[in-house]
Amino acid sequence: MVEELITTDGTTPRRIADGYVRALAELDPLTAVYLGLNPEDDRLPDLSPAGARAIAELGRRTLAQLDEAERAGAADDEAERRCARLLRERLTAELAVHDAGEHLRAVRNLASPVHDLRESFTLMATGTGAEWQIVGRRLAKVPVALEQYRQTLAEGIERGLLAGPRQVTTMVGQIAEWLEGEVPGGWFGQFVQDAPEDLRAELSGHAVAATAALAELREWLRDVYGPAAADTPDAVGRERYRRWVRYWSGADLDLDEAYAWGWAEFHDLLAQMRAEAEKVRPGADPMAAMAWLGTDGPAVEGAEGIREHLQGLMDQAIRDLQGTHFDLAEPVTRVESKIAPAGSAAAPYYTPPSLDFNRPGRTWLPLLGRERFPLWDLVSIWYHEGVPGHHLQLAQWNYVADRLSTYQVSLGGVSANLEGWALYAERLMDELGYLTDPGHRLGYLNAQMMRALRVIVDIGMHAGLDFPADSPYKPGEPVSPEHAREFFGQYCGLTDDFLDSELVRYLGMPGQAIGYKLGERAWLRGRAAAKAAHEARGEEFDLKAWHMAALSQGSLGLDDLVEELSAL
């Protein structure tokens, strides 16, 4: 069946790419949930090593079909060429990660198979009894999926491919939080409380079984996997790191150049933050000013209060930017603010709309046990996660999917492109005058500083580099995880819990965190080059038109992004 899906829809690259999407949705039902496909499907993916091999084989067959299409001249058209280039680069990068056995040690504090499994339930339709029945049937399969995941990690132990101990400790703690709750079945039990009353008892039984399986996995991670992984380095080394950088960025980056550039950004941002801190609290340094904003600055009380506030922030941004800096179709203007499930990582995040827009784009705020929410840093974050950041890009991609390919606007997404746009969106709102409040602007600069620090500590830890001679912190000493955490805490005004979670994230997802700042650099270079080209021709540069053209070209890796943006 999967073979038919990738071969019966023609031989152009765009048709091959979309055949791959449909085939992957069959092999991995969570991909289907993410895209809003196959709504009647109640399966879970095969999380065993055999399931990963099947997905890798699908990628190899797709590349072979793409080879045939290109030999036949089917990629000569510009649209087909762009799709073919993306499909080849993405599948090649994914296969490199698979062939290195990285799936055998997928233990981390977010975006692991277990995290994806839980998140999928928050994305499923639950408006009718029939939809809840699908939820129930899928929920009943959770114990099998968790056992398959354990088998995958057990093979990793046998082959000496293990996650670092920080990842294990963090996941054990997260699962413990998922097991808690006021009703039987922990998080799953709470989730099904919204089901129709006549189905609730059955779904609650499935929730209890799923939670029992989670508890068994937690014990195995703690008692078996943890001791086996105790001597595994937390940092991955330069060879593994370069493989992951290609996966996350779509580029073969010069790591030493990027590391040096990150330090230049650090020094520039530190000077700006010092000037802005003086406006917030005369005589205060940036850390003191941000600490004051966290305790005494404007804040919103309660989970529902902050959810409504963030929704209003996005709604206002859409009203203000529509027709002036963007031309948005009606489906793209719909976005929801949500509270993240308990036990999530500390960072806010975004989930895109389904391809048919029946499920809207959503921003998610982790509460982290808080009842009071200072606003100084949340404004810039919501421009990043929501509007004009992730939501405008990913929702616009969905809107133009019929002009490109489903693959180009979904599974072919390149993290550094996405995060680069979202960081560019924060800068855009600063350029447009939305961050004139000193507290909000200090929050924006702090967010920029966090991304510059990510470039430094992520590359430094994994590539085995030292703090440079002009570093204000331990010059000449290695960028170890311990040093990275202390350095981060001295120059980034975020809570200790958040920064601890961030460090675990960087160690568990090597190369992902550098894509924000390096991706923003690519977007800014592309805009500057396009503006210069228009002006050289004696034309006025239309930023709104450029934005819409840039957001309508689909995914690109950083190796191609600047060139394509420059030509718009």
Overall mean confidence score, pLDDT: 96
What is the terminal-to-terminal distance?
41 Å
Number of helices: 24
Largest sheet geometry: 3 strands, mixed
**Alpha carbon gyration radius:** 23 Å
Poorly predicted runs: none
Q: Please state the overall shape, judged from the principal axes of the Cα atoms.
A: globular
Q: What structural category characterises the helix and strand content?
A: mainly alpha
Helical content band: 55-70%
Order of helices and strands: HHHHHHHHHHHHHHEHEEEEHHHHHHHHH
Structural domains: how many:
2
Proportion of beta-strand residues: under 5%
DSSP E strands, number: 5
- For the biggest β-sheet, the strand order reads 2-4-3
Structure summary:
This protein has 568 residues and is mostly helical. 63% of the residues lie in helices and 3% in strands.
Q: How is the secondary structure organized here?
A:
Layout: H1 2-5, H2 13-27, H3 29-35, H4 49-71, H5 78-99, H6 113-123, H7 129-139, H8 142-159, H9 165-179, H10 186-191, H11 197-229, H12 238-249, H13 255-280, H14 286-296, E1 299-301, H15 303-321, E2 335-339, E3 349-351, E4 361-365, E5 372-374, H16 378-385, H17 390-399, H18 415-431, H19 438-463, H20 481-491, H21 496-508, H22 515-536, H23 543-551, H24 558-566
Parallel strand pairs: 2-4
Antiparallel strand pairs: 1-5, 3-4
Helix pairs in contact: 2-3, 2-4, 4-5, 5-12, 7-11, 8-11, 9-11, 13-14, 13-19, 15-16, 16-18, 16-19, 18-22, 19-20, 19-22, 20-21, 22-24
